[in-house]
Amino acid sequence: MRKEIVNIGFLGFGTVGSGAVRILQENNVEISSRLSPRLKVKTICSPNIAKRDTSWVRDEVKYTTDPNVVLNDPEIDIVVEAIGGREPALSYINQAFEQNKNVVTANKLLLAQEGINLAKLAASKKLSLAIEASVAGGIPILNAIREGIAAEKIVSLYGILNGTTNFILTEMEKSGAAFDITLAQAQRLGYAEADPTLDIEGLDARDKLAILSMFCFGRYTSLEEIPTQGITQLTPIDFVYANQARCTIKLLCMAKIVDNDLLLSVAPTMVPHNSLLAKVNGSFNAIMITGASGGQTFYYGRGAGSGPTGIAVVSDIIRIARELTNGHTSLSSTFSFQNLEKSNVTELSQPYSFSVRFTVNNHLGVVAKLASILSENNINIHSISQDKLLTDKTNLSFVTMLEPTTPQQLHKALEEIKKLDFLIQTPLAMRIEENI
Ligand SMILES: NC(=O)c1ccc[n+]([C@@H]2O[C@H](COP(=O)([O-])OP(=O)(O)OC[C@H]3O[C@@H](n4cnc5c(N)ncnc54)[C@H](OP(=O)(O)O)[C@@H]3O)[C@@H](O)[C@H]2O)c1
Questions:
Q1: What count of Cα atoms within 13 Å lies in the side-chain half-sphere of residue 350?
Q2: CA of 292 to the centre of ligand 1 (A)
Q3: How far is the CA of 106 from the centre of ligand 1 (A)?
């Protein structure tokens, strides 16, 4: 049966929800020239809707503070969950499926935790769970992996997946300002939340990496297993030393299959200046995928914001509307693979070059002691740099570049080094990704 109108209900009318409604209205001509049924926003639910500016929204739209008005409305075909967080979003999505409604969501936290169960439920009911906006906002990366390179055997993925931290790192490098000052600037400009923990501790990037790993490899894992390090330890001097090594520092997400093992990591990483990823600045996101047959593809764009995520949500709505008009939904599996396999995360065990910043109360023999512990652990120092502007010997930061060593060897050496009394900060070790 051909549908003439596809009705949409919104749960949440914040950045993402209002962005999607605005795109549906403002790009109406473009959308209707690509799609035969009319997309109609029927109801918007938001607890404080009375306080929001809705003057620009079409008069036909109804408002409610009761989610059941959306979830129990038999006319609504698609529910957009734009609330965020675990509950009540999870219950509402489950309820939407129970009521035979398709769901569009940008909720990466929930998808990383519950995506498998939700996708199974949707598939069992022949409904769509569409999630493009959940990873890298305006970059259609999930669609690209699921459709554009569906035939590819993906070998690795590197990504800058969190705009807040990329903005902070870019500003620290540019201005030489400290982490706290740059974070406060990001909050003033609206790039960071009042509570920035999920971003600066790398947890938001980790959730997106977990979703991408499902898309790339058909494997899912428990989030706690993914080694995750945030950016709070970084100081402006780290960028000076990185620059001397012709690198910049990015909060880099990595997903790789090596000998059938799944390697995942989120960590501040030294990225060579000549890598495309080094050129991704400010709040932008990027993903670099290497496939066994097609080689490298690179995706770049805005990772967040009303417009970019609004486009992602509405593009998902258009896809579902096309499926609905053709009488069959869920043409592709939510996470691209028909079946997802549970996988443990294997620690990186290949040798990598590392940079390690030591901050010490400097006196005779400090470097010799560090070098001897490193060499007892079979680690060779490639070079040592100390910025000439640093003159306070009681709080001196210098960097050692290490010849390739395994993270395990380095970890063992650093555990010994941490016990030394001249050390005044935990050493900061960063992997150098030489070939991306
Ligand atoms: N912001 C981005 O650029 C972006 C990018 C990608 C993904 N995401 C994801 O998109 C989701 C939404 O983010 P956002 O930035 O749009 O959040 P937001 O601006 O804080 O908006 C959240 C909305 O949810 C509403 N809400 C809260 N509790 C609700 C409930 N129980 N029932 C119905 N509505 C409820 C809020 O209502 P009131 O205002 O009326 O209280 C508000 O309208 C999150 O999962 C986020 O991770 C966001």
A1: 11
A2: 38
A3: 9
Distance (angstroms) between ligand 1 centre and the Cα of 63 equals: 16
Ligand 1 atom closest to the CA of 134, numbered from 1: 7
State the Cα–Cα distance between residues 325 and 332, nearest whole angstrom. Answer: 16
Question: According to DSSP H, which parts of 176-202 are helical?
Answer: 179-188, 197-200
In CATH, the number for domain 5-138+306-336 is: 3.40.50.720
How many C-beta neighbours within 10 Å does residue 377 have? 18
What residue's CA is closest to ligand 1, atom 5? 304
Is the Cβ atom of 307 under 6 angstroms away from ligand 1? Answer: no
What is the full DSSP assignment across 117-155? HHHHHHHHTT--EE-GGGSSTTS-HHHIIIIITTT--EE
- Residue 205, pLDDT score: 97
Q: Which of 42, 208, 250, 256 is catalytic?
A: 208
| Segment 258-313, tens digit of pLDDT | 888 999 999 999 999 999 999 999 999 999 999 999 999 999 999 889 999 999 99
- Does any ligand 1 atom lie closer than 6 A to the CB of residue 92? no
Residue 365: CB within 6 Å of ligand 1? no
Architecture of domain 142-302: 2-Layer Sandwich (3.30)
Strands 284-291 and 341-342: what pairing?
A: unpaired
Q: Which atom of ligand 1 sits closest to the CA of residue 306?
A: 3
Convert the pLDDT of each residue in 34-73 to its tens digit: 998 999 999 999 999 999 999 999 999 999 999 999 999 9
Superfamily, domain 352-432:
ACT domain (3.30.70.260)
Is 208 one of the annotated active-site residues of the chain? yes
* pLDDT (0 to 100) of residue 330: 60
Cα gap 155→82, rounded to integer Å: 33
User: Model confidence over 187-211: pLDDT tens digits?
Assistant: 999 888 889 999 999 999 999 999 9
The reported pLDDT for the residue numbered 317 is 97
142-180 pLDDT, tens per residue? 999 999 999 999 999 999 999 999 999 999 999 999 999
Report yes or no: 164 and 283 within 8 Å, Cβ to Cβ.
Answer: yes
Q: What's the whole-number mean pLDDT along residues 86-110?
A: 97
> Which residue out of 16, 114, 162 has the highest number of ligand 1 atoms within 8 Å of its CB and is therefore the one to mutate?
16
pTM for the full predicted model:
0.94
Distances (CA, A) of 430 to 42, 301, 339, 368: 51, 26, 35, 21
Q: Would you kindly state where each structural domain of the chain is located, as residue ranges?
A: 5-138+306-336, 142-302, 352-432
